[in-house]
Amino acid sequence: MQTIPKDNKKILIKLSGGALSNGAEKFTESVLEETAKQIKEVQDAGYEVALVVGGGNLFRGAELAGNVGIRRSTGDYIGMLATVQNALAVRDYFESQGLIVRVSSAIAMPQVCESYIPQRARRHLAKGRVVIFAGGTGMPYFTTDTTAAQRALELNCGTLVLAKDGVDGVYTADPDTDSSATKIDKITATEVIEQNLKVADASAIAMCRDNNLPIRVVSMQDISKLKDESLGTTVLPE
Q: Could you report the per-residue pLDDT of 150-187, keeping only the tens digit for each?
């Protein structure tokens, strides 16, 4: 188990691809604008910021798995390529808003972005650049949640932030279908797994627990308010 200093101001934020579309088109400018604004505020507060962007607004590998003769692994690779497309689009929009951004892909494609090299990513962060990790882990059968946990640990981030669309934390049940659902302020990673709460992929939660990495689950609108512990849910690595 690695030890993460409490004053560590390096964070990794996981954004779902679906959140970028806001349920409408593949990309919604108002969402991109608000996200860029919040990332700026986080940087202005002294944090180094890395992102992992999903690809659900463009393509989900599970949609092809088992259909028309396409293997699960092939579907996953196509999904990884969708995350690269999202990362490039987010990079260009963020840069139009004054942020300096680098895209780092686990799948080598040097014509469009850098290959993932941990030390290079650390240097980018130290220089105040936002780093967007794309291409998943570069291997099938792993989710972008697992990618986010792995990258956060390898870069020695202090917190993994799961930014959610339409929900502001972890609830006892699905608040959209269960009116008795209540928000949880703090919970352990072990409890999340045992109660099968839909926070993130179970392997990602276990990875964070086993390596002492806390998780904050917040709404997309609250990314810049991480210092306010009353917002969202803290998942303790226990």
A: 999 999 999 999 998 778 888 888 777 888 888 899 99
Q: Do the beta carbons of residue 94 and residue 51 sit within 8 Å?
A: no
pTM: 0.89
CATH H superfamily, domain 10-236: Acetylglutamate kinase-like (3.40.1160.10)
Alpha-carbon span 116 to 136, nearest angstrom: 10
